[in-house]
């Protein structure tokens, strides 16, 4: 694909990179996004009725089974060339922090050395009362959908993801915000830039003077503000950017 004029030259002059990813980053691996018409997960379910603490309290088995189904689907997919390009980019800059809204763990499976998960991780379970982690060995060896928690007599196992109405992990959001304030360049990849507070991060970077590069086949509220807006898929754009950076090095 054709990169915008000046993008590679700009990237060769920056040291600190912040990369923000959303569901579109996983789309080419076959993980449904939330709001896309074609693959929108939300077309089939009304997650507002499922991805909430209230829904889990009212009908824990329905919520547990929905996440179990998503976990099984994620187990079958693999990182794509865009995930691998982000791993390669770690060697091309002085520092690169990867912050994701995704809960599928694909960046870690691709080999990214450090991933800040703003919305948690669907493959991990925690106690519904204490928030303490529950090992998958407990989940697999105890009956119940969901199994009872080992940490609290009234607790149940639940996915370690941020539900509607819940706070994001403070340390994750703090790290992401600090990186947005300090980075020289910020990639915003595969996110509709609609859900706060994650959606504010590229604007924080922009206002702090960073170069902002958006990669998304569709336009978003960030597209008109970004320094570079690539209407392309994550795999295509990231592979091309990384290849050009390596060749021009
Ligand atoms: P969305 O489904 O809202 O947006 C996905 C974006 O990815 C859209 O803008 C698509 O145009 C874009 N896209 C689709 N395919 C792509 C590709 N191959 N390459 C690049 N971009 C592509 O997902 P998010 O913005 O991540 O929160 O949604 C944010 C949050 O909303 C999610 O993390 C979730 C949901 O509530 C929680 O679960 C807490």
What features would you describe in this structure?
This protein has 249 residues and is α/β, with parallel strands linked by helices. The protein has 2 domains: 7-30 and 79-119 and 168-248, Rossmann fold, CATH 3.40.50.1220; 32-76 and 122-161, SIR2/SIRT2 'Small Domain', CATH 3.30.1600.10. Helix content is 37%, strand content 17%. The chain contains 11 helices and 9 strands. It has helices spanning 7-11, 23-27, 41-44, 53-58, 60-76, 81-89, 106-110, 136-141, 170-182, 201-207, 234-248; strands at residues 16-21, 95-100, 115-117, 120-127, 133-134, 157-161, 185-189, 211-215, 228-230. Strands 3-2-1-7-8-9 form a 6-stranded parallel β-sheet. It has a 3-stranded antiparallel β-sheet with strand order 5-4-6. Helix 6 (81-89) packs parallel to helix 11 (234-248) and helix 9 (170-182) runs parallel beside helix 10 (201-207). The longest helix has 17 residues, at 60-76. The protein starts with 6 loop residues before the first helix and ends with a helix. The model has no long low-confidence stretch (mean pLDDT 94). 2'-O-acetyl adenosine-5-diphosphoribose (OAD) binds at residues 22-24, 27-28, 33-36, 51, 101, 119, 162, 190-192, 194-195, 215-218, 220, 233-234.
């Amino acid at each position: 694909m054709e990169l915008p004029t000046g993008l590679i030259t700009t990237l060769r002059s920056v040291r600190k990179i912040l990369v923000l990813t959303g569901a579109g980053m996983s789309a080419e691996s076959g993980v449904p996004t939330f709001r896309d018409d074609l693959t929108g997960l939300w077309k089939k379910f009304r997650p507002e009725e499922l991805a909430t603490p209230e829904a889990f309290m009212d009908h824990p088995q329905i919520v547990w089974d929905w996440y179990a189904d998503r976990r099984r689907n994620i187990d079958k997919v693999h990182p794509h060339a865009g995930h691998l390009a982000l791993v390669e980019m770690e060697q091309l800059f002085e520092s690169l922090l990867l912050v994701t809204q995704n809960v599928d763990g694909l960046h870690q499976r691709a080999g990214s050395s450090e991933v800040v998960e703003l919305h948690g991780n669907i493959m991990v379970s925690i106690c519904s009362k204490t928030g303490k982690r529950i090992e998958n060995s407990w989940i697999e060896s105890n009956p119940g959908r969901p199994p009872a928690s080992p940490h609290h007599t009234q607790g149940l196992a639940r996915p370690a993801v941020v539900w509607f109405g819940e706070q994001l992990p403070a340390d994750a959001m703090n790290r992401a915000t600090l990186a947005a304030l300090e980075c020289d360049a910020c990639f915003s990849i595969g996110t509709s830039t609609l859900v706060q507070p994650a959606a504010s991060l590229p604007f924080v970077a922009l206002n702090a003077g960073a170069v902002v590069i958006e990669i998304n086949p569709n336009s978003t509220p960030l597209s008109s503000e970004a320094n570079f807006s690539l209407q392309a898929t994550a795999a295509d754009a990231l592979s091309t950017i990384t290849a050009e950076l390596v060749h021009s090095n």
